[in-house]
Amino acid sequence: MVNPEIEKRKTFAIISHPDAGKTTLTEKFLLFGGAINTAGAVKRNKANQSSTSDFMEIEKQRGISVATSVMGFEYNGKRINILDTPGHKDFAEDTYRTLSAVDSVILVVDCVKGVEEQTEKLMSVCRMRNTPVIIFVNKMDREGKDAFDLLDEIESKLNISLCPLSWPIGQGHTFKGVYSIYNNHLNLFEPDKKKISTPVIEVNSLDDENLAQFLPEKSLSTLKEELELVEGVYGAVDKEMYLEGLLAPVFFGSAINNFGIKELLDTFVNIAPSPKSREAEERTVLATEKNFSGFVFKIHANLDPNHRDRIAFLRICSGKFERNKFFYHTRNNKKIKFSNPMDFMANEKSIVEEAWPGDVVGLYDSGTFKIGDTLTEGEKLQFKGIPSFSPEIFKEVENRDPLKTKQLEKGLQQLTEEGVAQLFVMQPGNRKVIGAVGDLQFEVIAFRLEHEYGAKAHFRMLSYTRSNWVTSKDPKKLEEFLKRKQQHIGEDKDGNPVYLADNEFMINMTMRDYPDIEFHKTSEFK
Ligand code: GDP
């Protein structure tokens, strides 16, 4: 059963190590898609500013224009949804969650720096879910690594087979453009940072005489030699392998100069997957099913003090989402309807009447949603794929203003539900411990507690650096373990017990001492 509405949707994220060119590429896609008119229109959401106030200023801007979280536009008859991910490593969990809501990704690699730390981490998350990946090697206008060496590096460090679908002509100051292996034509571009440049020449064969006008003899013969080698080494693209996440097509270009972007986008809309199926705890849900289902993967606080509600981002997995229709909130066991669901077409938010699998709608929320919540038409479902990972820094919350205890509790609850960091409750005394990946998260929490909730908190560093979710087939043994290790046990947001440890050694010792207990590095262990 083919539903054209589903087939035309391509929902993906552009990911990269900070500074490789994710924002620039996003902007160029919007430019090609006609969603914006000039470069510079996409807000940079980069949080590499060192001070918290700078960071909060950016967050504030983002909070007000939440549209930048999802950018939808039409291109070649397809509906493209780009989901934005934060660049800063302290917000990696936010990125991982967003990756649970896409059907594929484009991974940007800087040709000068090659594969970087975040590139590897992001790739490992893609691999967990077999997400199809296209690689864009950016900044070819700079003197970077040799194309063949770079492919070797990507292949070995990211542990994925590659297949170049375009090939650069020269590099750095000799960079002339790209040859599209996929479409068999050559496009030479003039560097232009502001608008879409028109191709100087399009040919269908490297033997075309006109080429000599544009390419020096030497470049042309090098290109021919290299293409022969590419074909010999990498062969033709195997689309099935790409869709299974086993093979990544590679494109070369320069985002800032519009080099190679159109090839990338055109091929992307051709081969990238439309929404297919999603795993729920109970069963696999097909996109083509008649009944609606979807899950919340992100909650964004509205930092405008006049609008204290939040926006929950819902990814639609099956059926049709409709405005003002009652849907079933499976965790709360309640029916709710949405009178102002938001759509994010052309970088603007507007009220949406209906939406389809692959689409993301923004729902105004006054505290009903937690990340991971599922909505259906009545079936009890819980979508999988949004695990919590072990934080690396743990700090106990100390209340600095006893008159504002309620505000503090509420703030901590809401901020951790938004996924800013993880909250663990420890006994005795209901002590609250925040677990995070980076210090910036604590600064953001402190700042937001004060400015949005009027509460003052201080964080006291604890010695833990690992958390493991614990289960056992024998409930008695688990109970005994939890009692014995009480000072190391916290309860996560869903009430599951978590064992907090100072280091890997301590976990290994405990595992040895308690063979009946199972230890899990992520919260999703079923
Ligand atoms: P992000 O952190 O991955 O979003 O990276 P940005 O898109 O903000 O780009 C980081 C820097 O690299 C910016 O200064 C861009 O202008 C620059 N940049 C992006 N693409 C290119 C390119 O193709 N060539 C060159 N030389 N610089 C680029």
Automatic annotation (TrEMBL):
<protein>
    <recommendedName>
        <fullName>Peptide chain release factor 3</fullName>
    </recommendedName>
</protein>
<feature type="binding site">
    <location>
        <begin position="16"/>
        <end position="23"/>
    </location>
    <ligand>
        <name>GTP</name>
    </ligand>
</feature>
<comment type="function">
    <text>Increases the formation of ribosomal termination complexes and stimulates activities of RF-1 and RF-2. It binds guanine nucleotides and has strong preference for UGA stop codons. It may interact directly with the ribosome. The stimulation of RF-1 and RF-2 is significantly reduced by GTP and GDP, but not by GMP.</text>
</comment>
<dbReference type="InterPro" id="IPR005225">
    <property type="entry name" value="Small_GTP-bd"/>
</dbReference>
<dbReference type="Pfam" id="PF00009">
    <property type="entry name" value="GTP_EFTU"/>
</dbReference>
<feature type="binding site">
    <location>
        <begin position="84"/>
        <end position="88"/>
    </location>
    <ligand>
        <name>GTP</name>
    </ligand>
</feature>
<dbReference type="GO" id="GO:0003924">
    <property type="term" value="F:GTPase activity"/>
</dbReference>
<keyword id="KW-0963">Cytoplasm</keyword>
<dbReference type="InterPro" id="IPR027417">
    <property type="entry name" value="P-loop_NTPase"/>
</dbReference>
<dbReference type="InterPro" id="IPR035647">
    <property type="entry name" value="EFG_III/V"/>
</dbReference>
<comment type="similarity">
    <text>Belongs to the TRAFAC class translation factor GTPase superfamily. Classic translation factor GTPase family. PrfC subfamily.</text>
</comment>
<dbReference type="GO" id="GO:0016150">
    <property type="term" value="F:translation release factor activity, codon nonspecific"/>
</dbReference>
<dbReference type="InterPro" id="IPR041732">
    <property type="entry name" value="RF3_GTP-bd"/>
</dbReference>
<dbReference type="Pfam" id="PF16658">
    <property type="entry name" value="RF3_C"/>
</dbReference>
<keyword id="KW-0547">Nucleotide-binding</keyword>
<dbReference type="GO" id="GO:0016149">
    <property type="term" value="F:translation release factor activity, codon specific"/>
</dbReference>
<keyword id="KW-0648">Protein biosynthesis</keyword>
<dbReference type="InterPro" id="IPR032090">
    <property type="entry name" value="RF3_C"/>
</dbReference>
<feature type="binding site">
    <location>
        <begin position="138"/>
        <end position="141"/>
    </location>
    <ligand>
        <name>GTP</name>
    </ligand>
</feature>
<dbReference type="Pfam" id="PF22042">
    <property type="entry name" value="EF-G_D2"/>
</dbReference>
<dbReference type="GO" id="GO:0006449">
    <property type="term" value="P:regulation of translational termination"/>
</dbReference>
<dbReference type="GO" id="GO:0005829">
    <property type="term" value="C:cytosol"/>
</dbReference>
<keyword id="KW-0342">GTP-binding</keyword>
<dbReference type="GO" id="GO:0005525">
    <property type="term" value="F:GTP binding"/>
</dbReference>
<dbReference type="InterPro" id="IPR053905">
    <property type="entry name" value="EF-G-like_DII"/>
</dbReference>
<dbReference type="InterPro" id="IPR038467">
    <property type="entry name" value="RF3_dom_3_sf"/>
</dbReference>
<dbReference type="InterPro" id="IPR009000">
    <property type="entry name" value="Transl_B-barrel_sf"/>
</dbReference>
<dbReference type="InterPro" id="IPR000795">
    <property type="entry name" value="T_Tr_GTP-bd_dom"/>
</dbReference>
<dbReference type="InterPro" id="IPR004548">
    <property type="entry name" value="PrfC"/>
</dbReference>
<dbReference type="InterPro" id="IPR031157">
    <property type="entry name" value="G_TR_CS"/>
</dbReference>
<feature type="domain" description="Tr-type G">
    <location>
        <begin position="7"/>
        <end position="276"/>
    </location>
</feature>
